[in-house]
Amino acid sequence: MTDKNNIPRHIAIIMDGNGRWAEEKGLSRISGHYEGAKRVKEIVRAANEFGVRALTLFAFSAENWSRPKKEVERLMRYFHDFLNKEIKAMHKNNMRFRVIGRREPLPEYLLKEIDAAQKLTRNNTGLALVLALNYGSRQEILDAVKEFSRAVIAKEEKLDDLNEEIFSRYLYTQGLPDPDLLIRTSGEIRISNFLLWQLSYAELYFPNVYWPDFKRDDLGRAIEEYQRRQRRFGGVEKQ
């Protein structure tokens, strides 16, 4: 059983393994993404019920544009359809929705759905669901450097005042707590240019299960593993 008094505030998930899941079953990669999209709904609901305050899902990386055109187009439609079908229920359950990543070259029809969803839920106070879409952490850090530099030139900031707290305000994740727990499904053990700044002190968990098979109980096991660990943040273990 999970300890309700020790739930990670922010969980980040790299939803990996859709394509391999499908290929091992003799299905198309698109079928894997379809199953993966269905899993999102279950995990969002479970995270909310567990008491997680923020859930960031790595949905599409800046490098994923190199995939076959048909696969990318279908993924964009899945993102659009997910928002179109689920945003009213999310709003009813007091969830906030947010997208991080560069807007270009996302299709206009998807951007309109994203903007409408963010506007509808912006004042909600429950679980923050964040989709990392066309996201890359190195580009995020570079964009933050550029924005801070512009603020210095405009005399809105002072270079000598720059510290970690101020720099964090210029990241895409401004206003969110750093993740306490990172989960990457599929058994791959790497973070793939995801939240490099924000994951500095996160606990990392790599279950050997593809994303389409990652269910509520798997999320519970990840949280239980998090609760077994002693977080020291560079200090010494408490006696």
Description:
It is built from seven helices and six strands, in the order βααβαβαβααββα. It has a six-stranded parallel sheet, sandwiched between helices. Helix 4 links the parallel strand 3 and strand 4 (128-135). The chain is α/β, with parallel strands linked by helices and 239 residues long. Helix 1 packs across helix 2 (29-50) and helix 2 packs parallel to helix 3. The model has no long low-confidence stretch (mean pLDDT 95). The radius of gyration is 18 Å and the shape is globular. The protein has a single domain (10-136, 179-228), classed as Decaprenyl diphosphate synthase-like (Undecaprenyl pyrophosphate synthetase, 3-Layer(aba) Sandwich).
Relevant terms:
239 residues; single chain; six-stranded parallel beta sheet; Undecaprenyl pyrophosphate synthetase; alpha/beta
Largest sheet: 6 strands, parallel
Report helical residue fraction. 40-55%
Q: Approximately how much beta-strand content do the residues carry?
A: 5-15%
Query: Given the helix and strand composition, which structural class is it?
Result: alpha/beta
Radius of gyration: 18 Å
Report the CATH topology name: Undecaprenyl pyrophosphate synthetase
Order of helices and strands: EHHEHEHEHHEEH
Query: Number of helical segments?
Result: 7
CATH architecture: 3-Layer(aba) Sandwich
